[in-house]
Amino acid sequence: MKKLVVRMFVISLLLLLGALFGVQQMNEKLGISQPEPLVVLKKQEGKQIESKKGNELVQKQQNELVEKKQTVEEVGRFNFFSDMGNAIADGMNYGSRAVLSQIMSFVDNVLNGEKTNAE
Q1: Measured between alpha carbons, how far is 31 from 22 in angstroms, rounded to an integer?
Q2: Which of 2, 20, 29, 73 sits most deeply, having the most CB atoms within 10 A of its CB?
Q3: pLDDT tens-digit series, residues 14-72
Q4: What is the pTM of this model?
Q5: What is the CA radius of gyration of the chain?
Q6: Phi-psi group of 64: left, alpha or beta (phi > 0 → left; psi -120 to 50 → alpha; rest → beta)
């Protein structure tokens, strides 16, 4: 049973690394270095709400959004969780690239029969 679990873990790890490597190779070949921003379609602004309460609610929400935008411009944007997520993502990106680089250089050296400096 232990052998089966170890084999499944190794196979899963190899598949994951293979998928990551394949995605990285395709990104480099296609020249995609940065993700493209999503296209956001704007809704029609000409919609009219028939009830007065609806108009008042929409106007109130728009005023709140304008006030929030002004406060964000004054204070500056700071989101702890977003910054923490970006730092973790950058670290994971750096780590995975380093690991994949080491694996691929090892495989390249083995396949091409090049000798390492240690020998």
Answers
A1: 14
A2: 20
A3: 999 999 888 888 877 777 666 555 555 555 444 444 455 566 777 888 888 888 888 87
A4: 0.33
A5: 26
A6: alpha
